[in-house]
């Protein structure tokens, strides 16, 4: 009687809670108008799947935090779309990711794992920006050892900083201009 005639007791695993965080950057400029409505809907649906939180930023020629709107409960998607698109000017402004006003910061150990260096991509990004910096997450003594190619990338950077702790990070950010 205890098991309703089933010769074993079923034990269910407690569902794991996803603690991942999500950050979305959505281009809502005129050229992306049709797709941006779909992407806003997509972002609105995704927010509940990430237990660590979901931040949503939309941009044309500048960044707008729309996370607060996305958190509104019991609203239909048309309302959410209207709210997001009303606060972001999309007429007469155009998205441009890399301009002479942009500062690019690359963060990583500059190890290519014996793959192609991607030097042409780094060069193209750095040349389109006001300035580019590399925050290297390895100690300086390991730079250019084995598969580290920081010197290849450094050629296109305004400066390269060793960032292995919080103080290094703060000091490097104070020197980025």
If you compute it from the alpha carbons, what radius of gyration comes out, rounded to the nearest whole angstrom? 23 Å
- Strand segment tally: 6
Cα shape: flat
Number of helices: 6
Distance between the termini: 75 Å
List keywords for this structure.
alpha/beta, flat, three-stranded mixed sheet, about 180 residues, three-stranded parallel sheet, about 30% helix, single chain, about 20% strand, 6 helices
Describe the structure.
- It is a single chain.
- The protein is of the alpha/beta class.
- The protein has helices at 33-46, 67-70, 77-87, 119-128, 150-154, 166-174, and strands spanning 22-27, 54-59, 63-65, 103-108, 131-136, 159-162.
- It is 30% helix and 18% strand.
- The strands form 2 sheets. The chain has a 3-stranded mixed β-sheet. Strands 4-5-6 form a 3-stranded parallel β-sheet, with helices on both faces.
- The protein is flat and about 75 Å long.
Summarize the structure in short.
By secondary structure, the chain is α/β, with parallel strands linked by helices. The chain contains 6 helices and 6 strands.
List the helices and strands and how they pair.
Layout: E1 22-27, H1 33-46, E2 54-59, E3 63-65, H2 67-70, H3 77-87, E4 103-108, H4 119-128, E5 131-136, H5 150-154, E6 159-162, H6 166-174
Parallel strand pairs: 1-2, 4-5, 5-6
Antiparallel strand pairs: 2-3
Helix pairs in contact: 1-3
């Amino acid at each position: 009687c205890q098991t309703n005639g089933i010769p074993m007791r079923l034990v269910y695993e407690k569902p794991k809670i996803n603690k991942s965080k999500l950050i979305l950057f959505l281009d809502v400029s005129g050229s992306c108008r049709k797709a941006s409505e779909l992407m806003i809907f997509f972002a609105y649906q995704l927010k509940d799947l990430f237990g660590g939180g979901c931040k949503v930023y939309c941009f044309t020629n500048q960044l707008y935090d729309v996370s607060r709107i996305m958190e509104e409960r019991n609203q239909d998607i048309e309302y959410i779309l209207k709210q997001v698109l009303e606060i972001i000017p999309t007429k007469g402004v155009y998205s441009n990711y890399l301009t002479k006003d942009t500062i690019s910061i690359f963060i990583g150990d500059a190890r290519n794992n014996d793959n192609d260096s991607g030097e042409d991509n780094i060069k193209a990004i750095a040349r389109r920006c006001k300035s580019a910096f590399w925050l290297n997450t390895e100690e300086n003594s390991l730079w250019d050892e084995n598969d580290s190619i920081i010197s290849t990338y450094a050629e296109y950077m305004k400066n390269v900083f060793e960032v292995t702790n919080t103080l290094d990070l703060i000091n490097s950010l104070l020197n980025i201009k």
